[in-house]
């Protein structure tokens, strides 16, 4: 597993929810298998731990952003130059 390039990360962002969930399951399974190999001293490529953990973190971040409705880097938020008044500001206007 090579390090993720920008195009590979973009490919992850374009996955639908089902494919994203399958990728998360596959990454967790790979991580489990790597732990088993390490425990039995059969692991030759220890760098796969870090790569798999980082990939899993990316996948979970994308999944969390979608669940929270946070825009991805592909679709930046539309900036609004007007701001919402907080409850404190509204009370100050009513009192003053």
Automatic annotation (TrEMBL):
Signal sequence, start to end: none
Biased composition (Basic residues): 86-96
CDD domains: Ribosomal_L29_HIP
Keyword hit for Ribosomal protein: yes
Domain of life of the native organism: Bacteria
Molecular function GO terms recorded: structural constituent of ribosome
CC annotations in GO: cytosolic large ribosomal subunit
Ribonucleoprotein keyword on record: yes
GO terms (BP aspect): translation
Chain spans, region Disordered: 64-96
Coiled coil: none
Keywords, sorted A to Z: Ribonucleoprotein, Ribosomal protein
UniProt-listed NCBIfam families: L29
Membership in a protein family: Belongs to the universal ribosomal protein uL29 family.
Name of this chain's protein: Large ribosomal subunit protein uL29
Organism: Candidatus Synechococcus spongiarum LMB bulk15N
Organism placement in taxonomy: Bacteria, Bacillati, Cyanobacteriota, Cyanophyceae, Synechococcales
